[in-house]
Structures are given as C-alpha cells and as structure tokens.
Amino acid sequence: MGNCFIDMGKVNDFTTTYTAKLILFVMIFLLPNTLLAEEKKQVDPGPGVTLLIYHRFGDDRYPTTNVPTTRFKEQMAYLKDNDFQVIPLGQLVRSIKKQIPLPDKAVVITVDDGYKSVYDVAWPILKSYGYPFTVFVYVKATDKNYNDIMSWEDIMEMKAAGVDFQDHSYSHHRLGDWPKNMDEAQYRSWIHEDLSRGSRILKERLGRKPDFLAIPYGEYNSIVLEEAVSIGYEAVFSQDPGSVSIDSDLMLIPREPILGNEWSGIEHFSKVLHRVDMPIYDLEPSLAALSHPLVTRFGCRVKDMDSYVSGTLGIYVSGLGWKPAVVDGNHVYIDNDKPLERHFSRVTVSGRLKDSGRLAMRTWMLIQRPEKEDVKAN
Questions:
Q1: What residue ranges do the domains of the chain occupy?
Q2: Residue closest to 195 by CA, chosen among 166, 222, 238, 155
Q3: Fold of 282-367
Q4: Is residue 219 predicted with pLDDT exceeding 60?
Q5: Which terminus has fewer CB within 10 Å in the chain: N or C?
C-alpha cells in the first residue's frame, strides 16, 4: 500500500519541477509579447480550448502536486465570473475528429491518478457549479487499494452521477523512457501489455472500454503513441503546456498543469486561459526516441504562416533556451551545435498573432534513449 506514496508523490515531484521550469520560461520570455496588449484591454480568448490537469486537492503533504482548496474554489469561480464554458472531454474530441468549430472561451477539466481528495474535496465543488470533468484512473493503485486513492465504490458513485472516467495506464510506468535492457519488440510488448491490462480492467469495472488515455507523467515517444493507437484509444493526452484547436493532433493533446504554489495562483491560471494553439507539422526532430544527444536542427512547418507578426516566431529547447527562428517560407527552425544535457527535453515553437496579439504555441517532447545493453531475445 505504501508504494503509492513513493510512486505518485516523490517521483511526481521530478516531473512537476521539470514542467514548472518550462511554464516559467513561457511566462518570462513568451508572455510579455501579449501583455502589452492585455494591459490596455483584456484579450478575448476566442475559439480555442484549454485543458486543465489537476492531481491533488487540499493536501499540503504533497505541495508540488497539490492545489489548495481555497485556490481551487477561486479558479472555479473565475471560470464562471468570466463566462468560460466548461465542456466535457468527449465533446472536445468529437469536435476535433469531425472538424466542428470549437466554442469560444472553453475549458476542459481533467484530473490524473484518482486520489481520494478528488472525491472528498474537488467533486463537491465541481458539482456546485455543474462542471463536467474527467478522471484518468491509475488502475493498479485503485485495484490494489493503495492509500489515498479512491475506491471502486467511490468511482461507481461518481460515474452514476455523470463523472467521466478514463485510462491512466495500469502500472503508471514511465512509458516514454525506453528501458536499455529491451530491444524494440520487447519495449513495444511492455507498453502494450500494461496499457491493455489497464484498459481491460476498466472495461470490467465500468462496463465499457475507455476511449482516452492520459500518458503517465506526460512522457512519450512515437512508439508509445503507436501502441496506444493499436489498442484503440480515440485520443491521447500529454502534460505539455499549450491550448487546443481543431488542428490539434488527437494522439497528442496538451494539458496545462495547475499545481504547486506559483502555478496554482489565479494570475497564472488566468494567463494559461489566454494562450492559443499554433498548428504545425513536419517536426524536426520527430517524436522518435533520440539515439544521440546532439540535435543539429529544431524546427517545423507552420500552418497559416501569414497569421503571425513578423519577427515574433521563436523556438525554445530545454537547456538551450529561446532563440529567434529562421523563417524560410512556412519552415521555421534554429540550428544547434550543443548536445542536449537533459534526459527529457521539450521543444516549444511560438509566435504572436497579428489579429489579437495573443501568444500561439505548440510543444513536443524529446527523450534520450539510454545506451543499449546487450539484449538477447527470450
């Protein structure tokens, strides 16, 4: 039982701190471009959706993954007072799939893991506003009755009241971190087995197969996403910062983490609601696990290039910082001669929209593959 605290408390602190550093960069280096316009007039968020991700509520034992109850109440009141629509996750996915225009000022609320504080603290507050939300279930923790995790009875009570439950994997492994003692076939099998097990148990317990997967720790590569597709998930969710448009990739939908001290404050909360998605394609490098730390070029192609203010396009890479992008038609990139020092890195492409001055951005993750060990097939 005690393993839950190790898996989901201290280990989560690493990912939380890493994500917080990226968010800090966005606020310091990217947001100032839009703040000048916002000082004169609050910018209307327009057609786009922000997905919020929470973990714990009112549990100060784990400050990096917790949101104080008073702050959570303040955030929900902010959504109501500022006319944001809180829509179900399924509605968002259907809109992207069918290319239905998204509603203005829309938000989706998601919660990972299924801690007991979701039932005790968050649910009563969300019910009072009539807000729909989705809980991604850490299946093993629920099935083994880990401490601080909701029971199946709690889940069934909430499900009967209309709460949506989806998959967060069975074991909560760091699926994107390719174990060095596995070849590709073994790695794929390891991922597939864990996801299949979680999906199967949720189907047995909830009476239906889960449609959506939130990747544990938000860590992924192309193989993780391919295995998720093979199991049949309709959409996969990361923990990359950013907003959602109908151009978003259903297999890699970003969510804004709301947690900790600074990142659960109302100032940060309100700012993330005003970002928009930057539709891009042909990522450089792609989502494949990196075999070498030196990446000589980071870039992509940007859809609707004329929508952005000239000179505002730039690329941020973890550990390397932000650089203005070279623009060649719709191809934006930076060249690089420094090896990546971090095992996990994120690349963020950003620019300022001409019509609103708002920050548009898209982020993806890069993970170094460890040096291979000699692997013998069984």
A1: 3-275, 282-367
A2: 166
A3: Immunoglobulin-like (2.60.40)
A4: yes
A5: C
